[in-house]
Design goal:
- This protein has 71 residues and is an all-alpha fold.
- α1 packs across α2.
- The chain has one domain.
- It is 79% helix and 0% strand.
- The N and C termini lie far apart (48 Å).
- It is rod-shaped.
- It has 2 helices and no strands.
């Protein structure tokens, strides 16, 4: 995640221009921001897992094809 993405997420949560207030407004915005960050990281992790799965599947398939050719 780069700085621009983090700033955009903070803007979506309304963190810019907010001062800590006793009514919890700031805390709610921080919670929303933390959830967006976690979601983004989870998406990145899932993408890596998909790449690994795809790579493994292609390797397994190509090995099976080679093995059939050697029979």
């Amino acid at each position: 995640m780069n700085e621009k993405e983090i700033i955009e997420m903070a803007q979506r949560c309304g963190l810019f221009g907010i001062r800590p207030y006793p009514d919890g407004t700031y805390f709610e915005a921080l919670e929303a921001f933390a959830k967006l960050i976690a979601e983004k990281e989870r998406e990145k992790f899932c993408a890596v897992l998909r790449q690994l799965h795809d790579s493994y599947s292609l390797t397994s398939d190509s090995n099976a094809i080679r093995a059939r050719g050697q029979e």
